[in-house]
Structure formats: structure tokens, C-alpha cells
Please model this.
Amino acid sequence: MRLVELGKTGERIPALGMGTWKLGSDHGTAIESIKEGLKLDMRFVDTAEMYHTEDIVGQAIKGEEVFIATKVSPEHFRYEEVKASCNASLKRLGVKQIDLYQLHWPNRRVPISETMKAMEELVKEGKIRHIGVSNFSVEDINEANACLKKNEIASNQVQYSLTAREIEKELAKFCKKEKITVIAYSPLARGGLLERRHEATDVLKMVGERHGKSAAQVALNWVVSKDNTVAIPKAGNLEHVRENAKALDFMLERKDIKDLEDFFSDYVSRTFVEFGKEIAKGNSAFLGKLVSFRERMRQKPKS
Model:
């Protein structure tokens, strides 16, 4: 498994981990899937108190060497509440220390200085190792970092995929410059990239055929091909975990990446749903782009 440095910490974490949002009601399958991912070197597991999956993760990682990340909910950003939430997460996870503790969303009703004071206290007490944020803008990160005295924000967890590229406008460049690792959640667009009837899936399959890989593996490979970026696809079931784990044993060629980004360039300004509606209406520009892409793929030799 390829490793990526976490912020400026000097610590290296797997480029591909496992997310645990909406794992489903079958806890046995969820635990089995996470354990399988650990066997396949996806030893980075992300959860959150808001997900209600910390206890499931705790059972799956018991006795394992794993980088564990979780999040405090924004309604708990008051000093004492942050500390209480952390203690509760430690108990549910069954660990003595959380590797990466993240602020789940900004909460402008609570002074960020109060929240960050609590986070630094938790580092000092040895209950957490690194401080991260999630869904924070450049302005939010700067404000939060300015409140830290001895630590720095190590990561920003944000939605990022071929169909969710809003961060490319500013945030991704900022994080790279400041050495703040981007943790990409929903790297498969919550399954939207894999819908059988969607033209976007056809594009991914065409690229995948050249490498003997699936659409999901191509999409994940594209995300982690970006500097300073790791991805945490959901550990939904054994089949998906095993498929995801093989997403990094090949390299997309520069031409592949360019073709994908050219085709999906409209997603920088359009949501996945909006783009799908345009195609459904028979938008000639998008359909023409698809026809052109298919033609180029036919002309390329397999790698």
C-alpha cells in the first residue's frame, strides 16, 4: 500500500483507507469488511460520533495496528463538550488514543478559539495525536490554525471525486501549499459513478479495460493520483473492500488522467445530478464529448 505523509507530522498513512458512514444495519458484515480491509493493508479507518459506527469500528480493530480517525460533531464544539466527546469516542472505539481527531463541520456559533483550545488540551493529555478538520474552507482553516499555539492542522477531510471537484478551484491548492493532507470522502460519488445507466460509468469502464481494472478502481486511482491526497471509500461489504484494495496496484497514464479530467471537467461547476439531467435531456455538447471519448479509447492500445 502506498503511503502519504500526513500534513507536516512526518507520519505516513495509507493512501487508501476505509470510510464508515452509513455502513448499514448488518453489523456483522461491517465488522467483517473492515477486518478484511486491514488484512489488505488499508490500515486507515475513519469514523465519527455522528455516524454512530465507532463501536462497530472498535470491534473490528481490536488488537490491530491501525491509524484511527474520528470526528467531534459541531454541536459539541464548546470546550468541555469537545473533551467529553473525545472521552466517549475513546470508550466506544476501545482505544487509549485517537490518531487523528477532526472537527466535523465548521460551527460559527462557537468561537473557534474555544474549540481549538480543547483540541490542544487533548493532544497534551495524550488522548489524541493529531488535529484535523473536515469540510473547512480556506478561511475556516486559517482561522482555526491561528488559534493553535503548539500544533497545526494536519488534514482537511472533504468530498472529492471525478464528479465533485469543487475543491480544485482553491482549497486543494491551498492545502498542498500549506502541507495539509486532503482526505477525500465519497471518492466514488456515493456510488453514483458506478450506476450502470450513467454515461460516466461507461467512460470509467473504457479506461479500466485498458488496464484490466474496474470503473471503481479507475475512479479511486484518479483521486489518489493527486498530490497530498488520500481516499476513504466506504467499507460496505467484502466484495467492495477487496475491489477497492486493488485500486492502487496500477498507475493511470498521464493521457488517461487528462482524458478523464477533460470529460469530467463540467463537474467542477455542475453537480453530478445536474450533469446527469443534462445528458438525459439529450444535451448535444455532453453527448458529443462522450462519442469523442469512446472513439479515442478505441484507438488506444491496451497497456
